[in-house]
């Protein structure tokens, strides 16, 4: 289908990962120590580890709350973490754009959608806290210069359209402005800085960290380890562990290295481990989410993911073996990923399903041009051409289109109960654009337990660990079994801001 | 250009070459830098060069101009890209003594024809 070299650099990275794994297992392993009698190399006021949405938001908010000496440490050579390479989708209830588009929404409604997808084990208090402050966080991104498409999107599992997306259709449309804002505010940023453990005071409080300088990810290079005192405390914004194949397979053995991943290579979870060692409570580690919008024709998140996210509401996903639909195209992520993985040929081999969209509708999103240009999506003038290209039985496919168009007309999907609001008037008609779908590991719902003050609870004492705060994907249990799309950015931003407020009050 | 001349002057000025070991080196670097490892290895020979090392001679604004793409694809410019702007350290995509693929190829299929792996 496509002779694109998808795995070139990925395999290369995998090799590096293996080497890094060995290096990490060496006896000089990171571990927390008593700070008693330690000679400090450096002293800072607020110490933030990780430079994604959560870390950047925490730095800006801490400065606004009066902190004078805020430092962000990032293990990679570049800033932004996984936040710099995702879809840039931001859900919030009660926004100006919802008002403009006449969408009725509320904190309650957003929380209720998320609880449903969480399948009974999400943390309602945290979801409510995030939803209540989501507009405020969205405002922070705009104040820093982030720009958004002039329309809302309705993502899978959301009962209304409430999702903003950056004009560049990427999280970098937020991390870049936030990073520049940090620079403007005088936040100190340090790249190639690898966190190597906490330094703990007499009462078990976090008083500082060990930080390796001049760190080159995946390479064995001895940088100097500094002991840094954090006067107000440490905010852990270190992200998920989707790129740590051993750890994710320990939780879910199906997530082998053969399964694609949308994450930045640095999403390996050491910060989280270190908090567990300190006593933090692990929550929901086995709930690792795959993105149902990803493509097997490119690496990572690529161009297709956003193309699919935008187009799912007014598109048909088709099983190539049967020529029929097989899922509600805007069900929650887990429902769709599971349905896609069940698409197999007669021998049981993976047969990535296709997403069919009318070109007149898909072309409204900037990524459509990109997917066609870079050969990860295709345009067809007739249904016959399309069916031939993907080897789909023509007759059932034609019948399915007719049936689906009936649902577009009636507003009721009798096959899969899809919410047809955003499909109104958008019949499936030639010319078509098509992408292939196959899930990729995307997000870790699990992590350390936090409360609505972003404090990290100790499993032995049941109390918050003094001096320690966590925000973003490194935290667990908030979303339950399946996180809804566009709910991570508000969570990262709000909890980053929350951590900053807590640390400044403590 | 001025910086190149400075380095050139340093080299011609007789900095001692440390090692005659055969090691991969770009031809054009050989001419300018010669065999003085320390010109790049500013953190010591056994360490990777700092992220400032390449910038002694190369200017990121100039590079961004040279690798600019059409308006439609402007954010695919490796030296001023969507995800990291102009801040991506050179060594992410370029290795003097080993081959490297561009960071972009983790997720994207677009090509950089002139990129020397």
Notable characteristics:
heterodimer; A: 506 residues; alpha/beta; FAD/NAD(P)-binding domain; Flavocytochrome C3, Chain A, domain 1; 2 domains; 9-stranded mixed sheet; 5-stranded antiparallel sheet; elongated; disordered N terminus; B: 117 residues; 3 helices; 0% strand
Q: Compute the gyration radius of chain B: what is it?
A: 16 Å
**CATH homologous superfamily placement of the largest domain in chain A:** FAD/NAD(P)-binding domain
How many helices of chain B? The count is: 3
Question: Most extensive chain contact?
Answer: A-B, 40 and 25 residues
Low-confidence stretches of chain B: 7-20
Q: Based on the coordinates given, report the CATH architecture of the largest domain in chain A.
A: 3-Layer(bba) Sandwich
Number of strands of chain A: 20
First-to-last CA distance of chain B: 24 Å
**Shape type of chain B:** elongated
Overall body shape of chain A: elongated
For this structure, the quaternary state is heterodimer
- SSE class of chain A: alpha/beta
Descriptive notes:
The complex is a heterodimer of chains A (506) and B (117). With 506 residues, chain A is of the alpha/beta class. Chain A has two domains: 32-291 and 443-506, FAD/NAD(P)-binding domain (3-Layer(bba) Sandwich), CATH 3.50.50.60; 293-438, Flavocytochrome C3, Chain A, domain 1 (Alpha-Beta Complex). In chain A, 33% of the residues lie in helices and 18% in strands. In chain A, strands 1, 2, 3, 6, 7, 8, 9, 19 and 20 form a nine-stranded mixed β-sheet that branches. A five-stranded antiparallel β-sheet of chain A has the order 13-12-14-16-15, with helices on both faces. In chain A, strand 7 (194-200) and strand 8 (206-212) form a beta hairpin. In chain A, helix 2 packs parallel to helix 6 (172-185). Chain B is mainly α. Chain B has two domains: 1-58, no CATH class; 72-117, no CATH class. Helices cover 21% and strands 0% of the residues of chain B. Chain B has helices at residues 2-12, 27-33, 60-66. Chain B starts with a helix and ends in a 51-residue tail after the last helix.
């Amino acid at each position: 289908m496509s002779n694109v070299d998808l795995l070139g650099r990925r395999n290369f990275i995998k090799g590096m990962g293996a080497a890094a794994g060995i290096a990490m297992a060496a006896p000089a392993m990171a571990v927390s120590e008593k700070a008693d009698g330690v000679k400090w190399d450096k002293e800072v006021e607020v110490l933030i580890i990780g430079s994604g949405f959560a870390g950047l938001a925490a730095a800006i908010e801490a400065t606004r709350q009066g902190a004078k000496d805020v430092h962000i440490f990032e293990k990679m050579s570049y800033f932004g973490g996984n936040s710099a390479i995702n879809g840039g989708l931001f859900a919030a209830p009660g926004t100006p754009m919802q008002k403009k588009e006449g969408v009725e929404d509320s904190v309650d409604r957003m929380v209720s959608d998320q609880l449903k997808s969480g399948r009974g084990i999400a943390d309602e208090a945290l979801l409510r806290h995030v939803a209540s402050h989501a507009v405020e966080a969205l405002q922070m991104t705009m104040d820093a210069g982030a720009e958004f498409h002039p329309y809302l999107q309705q993502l899978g599992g959301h009962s209304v359209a409430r999702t903003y997306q950056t004009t560049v259709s990427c999280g970098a449309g937020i991390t870049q402005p936030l990073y520049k804002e940090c620079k403007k505010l005088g936040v100190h940023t340090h790249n190639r800085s690898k966190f190597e453990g906490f330094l703990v005071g007499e009462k078990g409080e976090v008083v500082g960290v060990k930080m390796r300088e001049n760190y080159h990810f995946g390479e064995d290079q001895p940088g100097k380890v500094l002991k840094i005192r954090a006067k107000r405390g440490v905010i852990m914004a270190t992200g998920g562990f989707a790129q740590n194949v051993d750890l994710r397979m320990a939780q879910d053995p199906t997530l082998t290295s053969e399964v694609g991943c949308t994450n930045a290579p640095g999403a390996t979870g050491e910060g989280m481990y270190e908090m567990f060692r300190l006593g933090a409570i692990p929550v929901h580690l086995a709930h690792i989410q795959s993105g149902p919008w990803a493509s097997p024709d490119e690496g990572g998140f690529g161009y297709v993911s956003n193309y699919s996210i935008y187009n799912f509401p007014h598109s048909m996903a088709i099983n190539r073996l049967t020529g029929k639909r097989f899922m509600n195209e805007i069900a929650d992520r887990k429902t769709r990923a599971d349905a896609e993985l069940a698409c197999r040929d007669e021998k049981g081999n993976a047969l990535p399903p296709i997403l069919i969209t009318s070109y007149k509708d898909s072309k409204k999103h900037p990524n459509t041009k990109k997917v066609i240009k870079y050969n990860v999506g295709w345009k067809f003038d007739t249904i016959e051409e399309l069916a031939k290209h993907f080897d789909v039985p023509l007759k059932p496919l034609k019948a399915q289109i007719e049936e689906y168009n009936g649902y577009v007309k009636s507003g009721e999907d009798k096959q899969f109960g899809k919410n047809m609001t955003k499909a109104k008037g958008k019949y499936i008609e030639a010319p078509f654009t098509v992408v292939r779908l196959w899930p990729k590991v995307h997000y870790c719902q699990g992590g350390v337990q936090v409360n609505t003050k972003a404090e990290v609870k100790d499993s032995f004492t049941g109390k918050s660990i003094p001096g320690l705060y966590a925000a973003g994907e490194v935290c667990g249990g908030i979303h339950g079994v399946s996180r809804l799309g566009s709910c991570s950015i508000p969570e990262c931003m709000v909890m980053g801001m929350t951590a900053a407020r807590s640390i400044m009050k403590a | 250009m001025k910086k190149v001349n400075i380095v050139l002057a340093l080299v011609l000025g007789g900095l001692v070459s440390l090692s005659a070991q055969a090691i991969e080196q770009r031809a054009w670097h050989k001419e300018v830098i010669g065999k003085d490892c320390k010109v790049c290895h500013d953190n010591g020979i056994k360490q990777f060069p700092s992220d400032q090392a390449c910038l002694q001679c190369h200017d990121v604004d100039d590079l961004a101009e040279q690798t600019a793409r059409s308006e439609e694809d402007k954010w695919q410019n490796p030296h001023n890209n969507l995800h990291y702007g102009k801040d991506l350290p050179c060594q992410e995509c370029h290795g003097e003594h080993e081959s490297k693929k561009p960071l972009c190829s983790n997720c994207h299929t677009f090509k950089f024809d002139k990129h020397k792996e």
